[in-house]
Specification:
Strand order of the largest sheet: 5-4-1-6-11-8-12
Distance between the termini: 32 Å
Strand content: 15-25%
Shape: globular
Order of helices and strands: EEEHEHEHEEEEEEHHEEH
């Protein structure tokens, strides 16, 4: 399995820490958030990881190198100074990922979820990991039924963890799904992955699971400090 780590965001809620350091390179217990992911992916046997970068993207390669220290290959998908958002970020990385099923994870989360529990490829178009709704996101994102299918229009909802396994086919017809959304007609385009997931859910093509362990969206300095304290 190949992997994609989303690391392009500006981390605006994390300022002033992200004025000079991209959020995934901020440290928890002395280790960059993104390195926690790389180590887990390496232990899983992943040998090719693409990191999509934008804001302060020039800092990633000097900090992480080519991946040889983890016995894998790190490749960098540089977008533009303004991030292209999750959908286009994934679309731009597809060629590097050889259009094969891939694991994707947000670079600014921390979790004890075991990536080895993920399927090597999704049953349909994607397999997403959901978590209990955190205080900052009480409404959640998707509902998970007893058959493991995800729905955008049911209750109760859980929160998308930022961890999933995808097929490149999810993005094949992105223009017809995105339509005239702002950014879709730009060069390069800019669009979120959520509308594509919603459309696929309506067709019963997205499955998932509920992780009941630890998970943190490290979105503010306070949450980073709390995570650092709990990991000591």
């Amino acid at each position: 399995m190949n992997a994609l780590i989303f690391a392009a965001g500006k981390g605006e809620r994390m300022r002033p820490l992200t004025e000079r350091t991209p959020k995934p390179l901020l440290r928890a217990v002395g280790k960059p958030l993104i390195v926690w992911h790389i180590e887990k992916l390496a232990a899983l046997g992943v040998r090719d990881i693409v990191i999509n970068t934008s804001w302060l993207g020039e800092q990633f390669e000097p900090a992480l190198g080519d991946g040889s220290r983890w016995n894998l290959l790190l490749q960098y998908s540089y977008e533009v100074r303004e991030p292209l958002d999750t959908g286009c970020g994934m679309l731009k990385a597809i060629d590097i990922l050889d259009h094969a099923p891939f694991l994707a994870v947000n670079g600014d989360i921390w979790t004890d979820f075991d990536f080895a529990n993920l399927p090597r490829e999704p049953q349909e178009l994607a397999h997403l990991v959901l978590v209990d709704n955190p205080p900052q996101h009480p409404r959640g994102d998707f509902a998970l039924d007893e058959d493991g299918q995800l729905h955008s229009d049911r209750e109760p909802r859980l929160t998308f963890s930022g961890i999933g396994v995808y097929r490149a086919a999810l993005l094949e017809d992105w223009k017809s799904v995105i339509g005239d959304a702002i950014g879709a007609d730009q060069t390069p385009p800019r669009f979120k992955i959520a509308p594509l997931l919603f459309a696929a859910m309506e067709r019963g093509l997205i499955h998932g699971e509920h992780h009941c362990g630890r998970w943190t969206d490290v979105g503010t300095p306070e949450r980073l400090a709390a995570l650092d304290a709990t990991l000591l």
